[in-house]
Specification:
287 residues, alpha+beta, Serine Protease, Human Cytomegalovirus Protease, Chain A, 2 domains, 8-stranded mixed beta sheet, two-stranded antiparallel sheet, disordered C terminus
């Protein structure tokens, strides 16, 4: 249901990732965004994207063809507060060197719903520090300096707070997005208002089968995507979120709709894709 239309630029395949967000991971560590930012140039020049870090650990694990698990390379890195975003190019072609990349791409574009892949940053930890978690008041380890060389696409990442990989630009990687994300104020005009009020041209009376049974809650946690869309549309039209951005919409959904972070990020992505598709003026979205 949350499958997005894949974005290809000039026939090339790209994915968009929130690679890190300073959440406490399962190893009780926080990778600081400034550490990744300081190593971003190194990662762009020498780093890669693979499956489960196997190009990094495969040799020690005795995997003879570990290099075949490389599926792409980074083309852009942006840091926005405590979030680090990466745009990656996925290899295409034929033969063994492209097999894993083709399988990965097909898993997120060729099946419905798409398989869920989460980014996990990899490399060498050069410096650490310790402090007290302001929420739990427990000691935690801070990774303050790294040599960033890898993002491993994983089904079970160490940082469970990162959202899934996307085939649509989001965060500071998308066109018409400012330092905090998509500036919806550029689109909140008569066209957007009409599009939201009209439900993107969908008339429930003309729907059939399960689509006609769209439950809605009057308030509180949305019961499905359509309810989420209607509630968020009302929030935007009421201008309850000043200078709405993708990050703020996601945070709003988490806080006010009691939606899990991963579900909120994916649903906001679909909401934005619906809005993009139905707006007459799409020029600021690009490919």
């Amino acid at each position: 249901m949350l499958k997005a239309t894949p974005v290809e630029e000039g026939g090339e395949r790209f994915i968009y990732l929130e690679a890190s967000n300073e959440a406490l991971d399962q190893q009780n560590e926080v990778v600081l965004s400034k550490a990744l930012e300081a190593s971003a140039a190194y990662y762009l020049q020498y780093g890669n994207i693979d499956l489960d870090h196997l190009t990094q650990v495969g040799a020690k694990a005795g995997i003879s063809d570990y290099n075949l698990y490389e599926i792409g390379r980074p083309v852009d890195v942006r840091v926005d507060g405590n979030r680090t975003f990466v745009k990656g190019q996925i290899f295409s072609g034929s033969g063994p060197a492209a097999d894993k990349a083709n399988q990965f791409w097909n898993s997120i574009t060729g099946v419905n719903p798409p398989q869920r892949w989460y980014p996990s940053v990899g490399g060498a930890v050069l410096e650490k520090a310790t402090d007290i978690d302001p929420e739990t008041h427990a000691k935690r380890s801070l990774v303050t300096k790294v040599r960033w060389t890898n993002i491993g696409m994983s089904k079970t990442p160490v940082n469970s707070q990162v959202p899934t990989a996307s085939t649509i630009p989001f965060g500071v990687l998308a066109k018409c997005w400012g330092s905090q994300g998509l500036d919806l104020t550029k689109a909140l005009g008569a066209e957007l208002g009409a599009g939201l009020n009209a439900g993107y041209g969908t008339d429930s009376a003309n729907l059939i089968d399960g689509a006609a049974l769209r439950q809605q809650s009057l308030h509180g946690t949305p019961v499905n995507y359509w309810d989420f869309r209607d509630q968020l549309s009302a929030v935007l039209l009421g201008k309850d979120i000043k200078q709405p951005t993708a990050s703020r919409l996601t945070d709003f959904a988490i806080t006010h709709f009691n939606v899990e972070p991963d579900e909120a990020a994916q649903t906001v992505e679909r909401f934005m894709h619906d809005m993009k598709t139905n707006l007459k003026n799409r020029s600021c979205y690009g490919r």
